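Changelog note: in this version the structure field was regenerated for every chain. One regenerated record is shown below for reference.
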Amino acid sequence: MTFRFSRSHQEAYHTCPRLAWLRYYDRGHGWESTKLDLHRATGSLVHSINQWLLNHCLDHDTLPNDEVVDLAVAYAIEAYKKEAQERGVNIEEMGDLLFELTRQSALAEALCRAWVRVRLPDILAKFKVIAVEQEWDVPLDPEGTICIMVRLDALLERRDDKDLWVLEEKTTGWMSEDWLESFRYSSQTLQQVWAVERHMKRACGGVLVEALYKGIKRSDESGKVTYYSPLIRGYIKKGIPPFDEDELSWDSANARRKGWEPCDVWQWGKTKDWVALLPTEVLTAQLFSREVFRSGSEQEQWARQTLAEQRRLSGAVASLADPGHADIHDAIMALDFPARLNADCYSNKYRQRCPMLQVCFSGLDPADSEEFRPREPHHTQERDD
């Protein structure tokens, strides 16, 4: 029997073992929130658009034209809005659902159009896209009893030396040099390089991290949330027809000038047209890139420690599923899947609340709550099991 895990499984376990249990293992499937996490969904929307565009690069080795980009945006946004309306969204701090979906869609579209215009030409000049969203099962032991499920955003081949590189895309509402530098020490980039070299049997030069900045988000005195990003927030000075036309600007300095007022760009016109008006330097300020290199010794240490960790968890999960071990269930949970039970559960470093808060603190059973549903597997290998 093969025990499979993914980066998400492992990251959840390192954040809180009980969170990993509830999200991935409980009752054989784990749980997820019934309602859509809107901010995570926005990142997924950006990913969906760019996946379409990278597939075009894979098939044609050319930059996507406007028609391809338009189709990618339309298809991904339609699917995003449909899922949000079907599942619902927790919008207690956001206001109107349709407004928020429109805003998040505009932000995702603008980020992707900026990335296509500024970053993708440089990437395609240096690299050839050779795989997009491929799924791999990579064993950590010779017997294949412990496997990591891997799905890369894209796999690139550098044109000059044929080295393989991983393309990893991130959306973030927080940007700093420390955040970018942290990828040099991230277990994600370490695992990705290790997996590529084992699966492809070729050298992997590193990971190209592409970070798309969503802008600062602030709430005013009334609680209304505003995204301060030139990609979706402009400034308008309304003219007096038929003598004067409206003036538009992305410069926030206009907020203090007479006659100027902020406007949501999607209410002014098409997001596509607004992004086309923005100078390259404005778009570049929303996009960040970092090349990450990982050494062979780091990879070996990660693999050795991870194999030991996952073997232990494999045994714990099997014991918890065995009715004959019911008498030691509590001991196994306390040892292998303990709950953190600290202030981070309520507000972590990202000021986010754990979705399983009431399960641990109030004894809520996910199976008896409309707040949760069985987790939908993200990897084909999980469905096969």
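Spot check on this record: The first helix runs from residue 7 to 15. Residues 38-215+283-294 form a domain with the Lambda Exonuclease; Chain A fold (CATH 3.90.320).
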